[in-house]
Amino acid sequence: MSELKEISFSRIQVFRNCRRKYYYRYVLNKEAKIPQFPLSFGKIVHQALYEYHLGNKDILNCIEKAKNDFLNAYPDYNLERVDYEIGLILGVLSAYLEIFPSFDYIEPEKEIRLSLNGIEIVGRIDGLIQEGNKWWILEHKTIGSTSVIDFQKRLQLDDQPTLYMYALRGYDVCGVLYNLIRRPRFVKYLQENYKQFAERIKEKILRDPSMYFSRFKIYRTLRGIKEFEKELRYLIHTIRECHKHPDRLEVFYKNPYYCSSYLECEYRPLCVFGISDRLLEMLYKDREEEK
Ligand code: SF4
After folding, report:
1. Which atom in ligand 1 lies closest to the alpha carbon of residue 258?
2. Which residues have CB under 6 Å of ligand 1?
3. Is there a smaller number of Cβ atoms within 10 Å at the N or the C end of the chain?
4. What does the pLDDT read at residue 37?
5. pLDDT tens, 63-81?
6. Would you state the pLDDT for residue 5?
7. Which pairs from 232-237 meet CB under 8 Å and 24+ separation?
């Protein structure tokens, strides 16, 4: 196995959270042919907001572009479901932009890179924003039924904000601004087209926006960031060692407490039924390069 020269933030996080998932994803190099339904909501919302903050102020056009990118990446995805999702997203983002029209200054989708222990760590944040003379890392998160309190509690210990703050310490950032968007559950009536559906959703959301949108800031202390650096060095060392000794990769253990974190894990069938050529062929494809 070739030596690792570059590694993404998400790959490090997968290794930390479930080594079995790391094995399926980065060693066998597989991903689900058809990911679960709500995945389209998160991906399209992220991409549409990116387009919007780049300067395209026609949100429907941003959503359409994001939908096309999504369908190019997942050609087998259920088209009816995506159409339903587009009405939902249009309603949600139209309401969202009425409440939060923009940020002071935004540098959307910023790539971050750092070198540690002779390896390049790469990642991407949703944006860097400025409030007065202070910088914040922006992170959009789409959530389902999780409560905001639970989400905040999880983030207090999560290494994602720490990693971002560590990587961007040269910018003197104050913290991470989390922008939560909840995926609502509305039924689309048969007689409605997607624009009418979106309009109805928007009106409902605007009656009580706090149910659907939430913004809060997460901070890290200098001491916390220093401690994290040690952890990160150790993690990278461990990942490299495992790749040098492939027999270790095959005995990676499962972490059942991570299976339903955010979305249901796409590798669940492999964990439940065991790896077989038939299952791999039926449900998975070779993974594309990470962007
Ligand atoms: S199903 Fe659970 S245990 Fe299996 S790879 Fe996914 S997260 Fe890990």
Report:
1. 7
2. 18, 20-21, 254-256, 258-259, 265, 267-268, 271
3. C
4. 64
5. 999 999 988 888 888 888 8
6. 86
7. 232/12, 232/116, 232/121, 232/163, 232/166, 233/116, 233/117, 235/12, 235/15, 235/16, 236/7, 236/12, 236/116, 236/117, 236/119, 236/121, 237/117
